Amino acid sequence: MKKAFIIFKRDVREIFGTKAFLIICIMSFFMTAAASVITSILLSRQPWVGFPEARPALELIIGLLTFFIPLVIIMVFIWGFSGLQPAREKAEGIISSLIAAAITPRQLWTGKSLAIFLPAYLISVLSTMIAVLAVNLSVILPASGNFIFPLPLFLVSLAWDPLLLLGTLMFIILFSLAGNPDTAIAPSFIIGFGLMMGIPIGIAAGGIDLVSWDFSLWFLAGTAAAWAAVIILTRFLTRENIVLSSKGS
User: Fold this and answer.
1) What does the pLDDT look like over 104-125, one tens digit per residue?
2) pLDDT, position 22
3) pLDDT digits (tens, 9 = 90+) for 217-243
4) Which of 32, 33, 174, 236 has its CA 20 to 30 A from that of 69?
5) 187 with 168: CB under 8 angstroms?
6) What is the rounded distance in angstroms from the CA atom of residue 185 to the CA atom of residue 39?
7) Residue-range domain boundaries for the chain
8) Cβ contacts of 238 within 8 Å, gap of 6 or more
9) Are residues 112 and 15 in contact, defined by beta-carbon separation less than 8 angstroms?
10) pTM of the model as a whole
């Protein structure tokens, strides 16, 4: 773990020094502010907000905020850093040097994956909490006397969904190291856009209830299946594959 932490610190330092990181942070700030302000203004103009019957609608609104803010932020980090950095380091011989320095493939894989994921996750949690607090404290709590953030929604938004995206990221890094970085990122677009489009369609069709335990458990099952696939595919993460793919890049 010590060597993985060394890789983690090195990559975090590089990520923090890029313009892309600054742009993503600014984008996250404006997205969170816009979502909070627009949602609060629109809700404040609705006379039904204070009625007990309005709770399902308010839960849905909070659910959309808390599901999509972390999803967008983490996916942008994945798309911004998971493909280009390994490809550049392969071309420059950095990956081969790290492997030759008694760092195991799994240490390299873990350190690089967490260096992208943890900053993204922390920013997404902060952004989500700001949006939830802003909408609840400015509109929902004064009107209804309730603070809305159901436990199933909390688990999906801040646990299962990030875990699914971490599994996606680790898949990308795995095949970026042991294969072709250009094709490794392709599945992330399927998952990212699939969630961004599939969840709203499912809600509109009445098949998905973001704040239900059923949805939380199904999402957890899907996350577990994704992680099982990643664990099975770690057999491709070998020194030989990493060195050969680096020579071919």
Assistant:
1) 888 889 999 999 999 999 999 9
2) 94
3) 999 999 999 999 999 989 888 888 877
4) 174
5) yes
6) 33
7) 2-248
8) 105, 178
9) no
10) 0.90
For residues 37, 162, 76 and 244, what is the CA-based torsion angle, rounded to 10 degrees? 170
User: What is the token pair recorded at 6?
Assistant: 């060394």
- Greatest CA span in the chain, whole angstroms? 66
62 and 148 Cβ atoms separated by less than 8 Å: yes
> Please, are residues 89 and 11 in contact by the beta-carbon 8 Å criterion?
no
Report the half-sphere exposure of 163 (CA within 13 A, side-chain side).
Answer: 17
Distance, in Å, from the CA atom of 234 to the CA atom of 231, rounded to the nearest integer, reads 5
Residues whose CB is less than 8 angstroms from the CB of residue 81 and which lie 6 or more positions away in sequence, other chains included: 15, 20, 116
